[in-house]
Amino acid sequence: MNEVVEIYTDGACKGNPGVGGWGAWFHYNGHEKSIFGGEENTTNNRMEMMAVIKALETLKRASKVKLYTDSSYVQKGMTEWLVGWKAKNWKTAGKKPVKNDDLWKQLDMLASQHQIEWLWVRGHDGNLGNERADVLANAGVEQVLNKAN
Q1: Which of 20, 21, 134, 140 is flagged as catalytic?
Q2: Could you tell me which residues come within 8 angstroms of residue 108 by beta carbon, excluding any fewer than 6 positions away?
Q3: How far is CA 54 from CA 26, 38, 119, 148, in A?
Q4: Has 108 been annotated as catalytic?
Q5: What's the confidence (pLDDT) of residue 3?
Q6: In this structure, are residues 13 and 22 in contact, taking their beta carbons and an 8 Å threshold?
Q7: Would residue 10 show up in a list of annotated catalytic residues for this protein?
Q8: pLDDT over 70 percentage in the chain
């Protein structure tokens, strides 16, 4: 596991809830890969999480990953909140059920297969990887809208 896979992820939503899209851009060993998709009725946070889930599902073997997201929800969820939620049986500090626990559980399981550095980047700030992921997430939204018409 010497080579690092760089992954940039993003989610988009037209209305919240509304039509959503997710995208991920991979950079590894001089190669690039892009994936995207979407859902009809979802939220921005769910699309941010789906981008990461789909990205990790794409990896064919245990990898060392630098995962860049402009979602502090995803970044803090994975680096700060997850341990407590699991210890409290998927309840928040206020004893309420964790929102999107279905995706958090899936993300936790996938993340455990890799060595991931969770990095937050400011969205829409000229970061090339983030801009590419944003374009892909919006392509996911368009794909869903075009299927509906």
Answers
A1: 134
A2: 78, 82, 86
A3: 12, 11, 17, 22
A4: no
A5: 84
A6: no
A7: yes
A8: 99
